[in-house]
UniProtKB/TrEMBL annotation, chain A:
Residues 1-21 form the signal peptide. It is an enzyme of class 2 (transferase). The keyword Lyase does not apply. Heterodimer of SoxA and SoxX. This is SoxAX cytochrome complex subunit A. It comes from Reyranella aquatilis.
From TrEMBL, chain B:
Gene3D superfamilies: Immunoglobulins. The gene is soxZ. This is Thiosulfate oxidation carrier complex protein SoxZ. InterPro entries: Ig-like_fold, Ig_E-set, SoxZ, SoxZ_dom. It holds the Pfam family SoxZ. Residues 9-100 form the Sulphur oxidation protein SoxZ domain.
TrEMBL record, chain C:
Keywords: Signal. Residues 34-143 form the Ig-like SoxY domain. This is SoxY-related AACIE arm protein. Residues 1-30 form the signal peptide. InterPro entries: SoxY (IPR032711), SoxY_para_1 (IPR030997), SoxY_sf (IPR038162), Sulphur_oxidation_SoxY (IPR016568), TAT_signal (IPR006311), TAT_signal_bac_arc (IPR019546). It holds the Pfam family SoxY. It comes from the Bacteria.
């Protein structure tokens, strides 16, 4: 009896310390945790988060027929809360019939050109961002779960190479700021760990919703590097690596960031 | 197509003071910023926001270019009788948008 | 609050509000306030301005004005006006309220071009004016958009 109690007690202690170790093990910080209370509250309240306006717009577009086929997203995919749940946690990914990874906006454009027979929406187009936000919002709170395979892994390795490569007039790599100096301050703002947990984000600086691509371009401008063209495969490769770094962290779309 | 998000309770006790929050998609272009061609982008703001409860005005706000894009407004209202709250935004370039919420008072 | 601090406070309010010093935009703010209060002198107090003391980005700054008031038919806040000193225009917003509001609390988000003082003036149903202020530090964000 005493032995059983002791064993039970020990099990409890182990369970508690295991849980504590698990909780303490992940030191990664989402940009959310580096924001002040006012901005965290703005993101948390769905009628205060301006990104939700675009999610709402995306929901309207989801149901609206488009292209020569006059089909809406909903005609094929039904209720997004079911069909799109978890999808954004896996992107960029290689869709069926494709030979290379595409990001979520690329996937939406594939659907437009192949299934709706509609024109591609250009980068940073409001409708494209809204659809992307609507789709990604269906995975809010779910852990990031990147796909693996020989092709996608090769692109991810290329992305890591870009992340570690010095570039621009300031001769900085992504890693120098976001690994080595994350948490320190640059121009009064905490340098984030660069986890893409909430894209598309409502960046206060933009006063609008914007893509990870746009944010990466801001970084490139920051280090005085030449930004890649908007359709360059570098963005997808880098996003693959960033999503791997953020694996298991929870999606927040639409996140608010300064 | 106007995009508006409103947060108001569906029910309230008689006399209860409830919070109403509203967010609307709008650029709130100040009229002070140069565009890509170097010319000033013309002002395009929401100038006025009003709220009525069963037709009687309960709150009004005159906005300036200093209000942030995609304006957010929160205010309080005392629930005296069941009815419809109508929120209305008007501004430059003939902008007009409206959203209605029903609040049942028990 | 003791009598001396109270007196100093009121004197400061009287001096700062109607007789704005050098800066043109401070003058513009004083002028905008004068348009609202006329010949009356706002009393400092009853008005609380909630703004984060350190703002991560000046383009969207949450701001809430709270005025102490019973909000009854006999005694309520009729209007709340908010002013700033460094934006191109001194007016931020003017809200009209009444007893139907139950609470004199108004929240919105504002653009602030720079660190500065924000002032809120409340007009009560007895025709008096009350004021409150807050200092805001706006930090500059890093890694922004390319210039067009």
């Amino acid at each position: 009896m005493t032995a059983r109690l002791l064993a039970f007690g020990l099990a409890l202690v182990f369970a508690a310390s295991y849980a504590a170790a698990q909780a303490g093990a992940d030191k990664r910080r989402s940009g959310y945790q580096d924001m002040g209370e006012a901005l965290q509250k703005m993101q948390d309240d769905d009628t205060a988060n301006p990104g939700m306006l675009f999610v709402q717009l995306g929901g309207q577009l989801w149901a609206k027929p488009a292209g020569a086929e006059n089909k809406s997203c909903a005609d094929c995919h039904g209720v997004a809360a079911d069909s799109m749940k978890g999808v954004a946690t896996r992107y960029p990914a290689i869709p069926q019939g494709a030979d290379r990874p595409v990001d979520l906006e690329g996937r939406i454009n594939m659907c437009r050109t192949e299934n709706q027979k509609a024109e591609r929406l250009p980068p940073e187009n409001r409708d494209l961002l809204s659809l992307e936000a609507y789709v990604a919002h269906q995975s809010r709170g779910m852990p990031i779960a990147p796909p693996y395979g020989p092709v996608v892994d090769a692109f991810r390795a290329q992305g890591e190479g870009i992340y570690r490569r010095r570039q621009g007039q300031l001769n900085l790599s992504c890693a120098i700021c976001h690994d080595d100096n994350a948490g320190k301050k640059l121009a009064g703002i905490v340098i984030p760990e660069a986890h893409p947990t909430g894209y598309p984000i409502y960046r206060l600086e933009w006063q609008a919703l914007g893509s990870l691509k746009r944010r990466l371009r801001n970084c490139l401008v920051g280090i005085r590097a030449e930004a890649w063209s908007l359709d360059a495969p570098e963005y997808v490769a880098l996003e693959l690596y960033l999503m791997e770094r953020a694996k298991g962290m929870k999606l927040e779309t639409p996140a608010v960031r300064p | 197509m106007s995009n508006i998000l409103v947060n108001a309770p569906k029910t309230a006790r008689r006399g209860e003071v409830v919070e109403i929050k509203a967010l609307i998609l709008h650029p709130m272009e100040t009229g002070f910023r140069p565009g890509p061609n170097g010319r000033i982008i013309p002002r395009n703001i929401i100038e006025r926001f009003t709220a009525t409860w069963n037709g009687a005005e309960i709150f009004a706000m005159e906005m300036s270019p200093a209000i942030a894009a995609n304006p957010f407004v929160s205010f309080f209202a005392q629930a005296r009788e069941s009815g419809t709250v109508v929120l209305r935004w008007t501004g430059d370039e003939g902008f007009a948008a409206e959203e209605r919420v029903a609040i049942a008072v028990e | 609050m003791d009598r001396r601090r109270f007196l100093t406070g009121t004197t400061a309010a009287v001096l700062v509000l109607p007789l704005a010093p050098a800066s043109a935009t401070q003058e513009a703010m004083a002028e905008a306030i004068r348009k609202v209060v006329g010949t009356a002198t706002p009393t400092e107090g009853r008005v609380k301005l909630d703004v984060p003391p350190l703002v991560e980005n000046g383009s969207t700054v949450p701001l809430t004005v709270t005025v102490e008031s019973p909000m009854s038919e006999a005694d309520h806040v009729k209007a709340i006006h908010v002013f700033n000193e460094k934006n191109p225009q001194p007016n931020v917003f003017s809200a009209r309220l009444g007893p139907r509001n139950g609470k004199a609390v108004v929240g919105t988000r504002v653009k602030l071009g720079d660190s500065q003082r924000i002032i809120a003036i409340a007009e009560t149903s007895d025709g008096r004016f009350w004021s409150g202020g807050a200092d805001v530090i706006v930090t500059l964000a890093a890694c922004l958009e390319e210039s067009p």
